[in-house]
Amino acid sequence: MHHEKLSDAQENHSSSTHHGRADGTYLVGSALAFLRASIPRDGDSSGSPTLARQKDDLRQWAGSLGLLLNDSDLPSKLVRGGQEHDLFHDVLTDRYFKVTRHGVFGFSPGIELALVSSSQEARRFHLWEASPLEYLERLHLQNMLVPGLNSLEGIIDQLDGDMSIVTSQPRFDIVPVTTQEIDDWFSTLGFEKITAAAYYRPEDNLGIFDAHDKNLVRAGDLLIPFDVIPCHPAGGFLEFIEETLIAGHSLRAVRTVTTHP
Q: Which of 8, 61, 92, 235 could be bridged to 34 by S-S, CB 3.0 to 4.6 A?
């Protein structure tokens, strides 16, 4: 997402979505915990709640806190901000509001099995369309990297039965960074590079993906990864990363448009 200057009309829009409390970051964790409660206690990932169940649970959570919004709570015209968001700038709070678009909640990294010859690696690294649960996990981990980065503002229940998640971030001045600067910065934090724009830190099993120069900005001596995809790899995906690092190989990410059931 590029935090660029928007139109005067959007600059002057006083957003009614902001809840006026200092707990927007906390709400990210609260919504995530509510959705996690639907996961079977045996931890079997195949038993994760379906997409429909996650949306129903999120509506219930938002309704209980008065965080269900209407389309009229947003400006009439939003700016496209990447593959999964529309956005607008609220001049009063100097924050950018991000609205998930068309039932898409970003991407989640993982692997798939491919039909290849025995001499080739049958596993391929992909970025899959994420569920609301995975989207909130991404926001939560971003807040761990940059405290206070993401605030959850509410949920829009669309007329067609779909939903949008509304979040906000501070406005950042665009100070470009180079790939080498990004590599060096992640290295100082203990990450190893596993592919272009992707890093892994074994000590806390933290992977950072989509960390290219469009998703990080400079703020003084710090880099702000405002739109990266963090995750805790598990199962075969974690084994794949560990084996790749041991072998000294690199991975190549492939974006895959596949929705959850």
A: 61
In which element (H, E) is residue 133 found? helix 132-145
Alpha-carbon distance of 62 to 27, in angstroms, equals 10
Q: Please check whether residue 131 lies inside any domain of the structure.
A: yes
Query: 101: closest CA among 162, 32, 143, 153?
Result: 162
Q: How many Cα atoms occupy the beta-carbon half-sphere of 28 within 13 Å?
A: 24
3-state secondary structure of 230: strand
Kindly report the pTM of this predicted structure.
Answer: 0.81
Distance CA 217, CA 236 (A): 32
Kindly report, residue by residue over 13-65, the tens digit of the pLDDT. Answer: 334 444 444 488 899 999 999 999 877 654 444 556 788 899 999 999 999 99
What gap in Å lies between CA 80 and CA 46, rounded to an integer? Answer: 34
Structure-block tokens of residue 154: 């509410």
Per the structure, the count of domains in the chain is 1
CA distance 115 to 224: 39
Range of the structural domain that residue 108 is part of = 8-172+251-256
Residue 37 counted as domain residue = yes
